[in-house]
Amino acid sequence: MATTHYELIHPKTHLRVLSRYEIQMLKDVSSESHELVRRCCYAVLSAGSQSDNYLDLETEFRDFNIRVEQEDRGIILNLINPPQSAFVDGEIIRGVREQLFSVLRDVLYAQESILKAHRFDLNRSEDITNAVFHLLRNANLLKPDRRPDLVICWGGHSIPRHEYQYTKDVGYQLGLRGLNVGTGCGPGAMKGPMKGCTIAHAKQHNREGRYIGITEPGIIASEAPNPIVNELVILPDIEKRLEAFMRMAHGIVIFPGGPGTAEELLYLLGVLSHPDNQAIPFPVVVTGPAESEAYLRDLDNFIATTLGDEARQRYELIIDDAAAVARYMKTGMTAVEEYRCSNNDAFFFNWALTIAEDFQLPFDPTHEAMASLNLSKALPHHQLAANLRRAFSGIVAGNVKASGVLRVQEHGPYQLQGDEEIMTGMDTLLSAMVDHGRMKISGGYEPCYEIVK
Length: 453
Prior knowledge:
This protein has 3 domains: 6-119, 2-Layer Sandwich (MCP/YpsA-like), CATH 3.30.1850.10; 143-342, Rossmann fold; 358-452, no CATH class. The strands form 4 sheets. It has a 7-stranded parallel β-sheet, sandwiched between helices. The protein has 18 helices and 14 strands. Helix 6 (161-176) crosses helix 13 (322-342). It is 48% helix and 13% strand. The chain is α/β, with parallel strands linked by helices.
């Protein structure tokens, strides 16, 4: 019989006290909040794992549990069979401890103050944006006293070593110029920029460096927050996560990646293609090392094929020049600051950006929903981008998310169809992702999709 291992963890920073109602809700093992907290806490404790196989992770997760206990002085987390990689000589790593209590804070607040409280109509664009604002404010990520300096970095979690090194080089160059980094907080291109940036900040004696991680429950298990993250927030779904990136970012760098990175790029270009956003400065760079140039050209050609040259003009393509990426971002920050000042828009949250409901309402990638996506060049570019984003979101779900993996197991691959030129371009890009090993870290890849031409 296996021995059960217990660890008692006290909070050191935020969320030191909970109400009796919140404690009871977390103790109720049948409640949605308890299961969300359990799953997200396990992901945080598993940071550094090189597996993104949902079924393997589920097996390891089965014996883990978490209990929240009340003391007169506050709360204690009782971890049952936690991964030992989160501990050093019996002591939990400080960054992991802080992220555990970030999980409690965000799950409780989202469930009780946003999703169940009916404070916001989450079918209305304005209310969705306000909900995102409240979630970020509750996590203390909105800093009103800082000038524009936040570069969001997107890229794949499954990337080769030379690409990972390049993301570190870019992060280093950004940090030398006083810029901060936010990512999806997982491994690969989400970890590399933070690693490079920490070294640069140390050289510049910058002790206020920000390494922001923005995630959501559906993906956190397979892309666990890396321990460098010092500000973590968990949004309720992928659409609110993407909006949070856009509202907080002063500029975005996109590294090579898989379907999740394509989803993010399509979301970004779809938002920036909206007629209301044409005059808003928003520096964007697509970049990678010399070895990745062919793949980046494939991505660039896909954007040209689907969204046209106007969309391509919203980003700068820079190959194998980390310093040039950082200089472009630093220059872009000046334009962002001038625009925000002249339009009385906040530095810490981009209220002026129009994000249409097509990009805000959660998309559930059922087989029926994926097959019925309208992928036609007759659509306005921002609407086509929204539907392409949904297609890639479904592929991400089929690759690594619990619900998507199980659906594909039960019903077979998703079917995608549309204009021949679009589908040919998508097939070429997805095939390149498979060939370059960008779909998964662990195990052989079985496509969760079929292109119907």
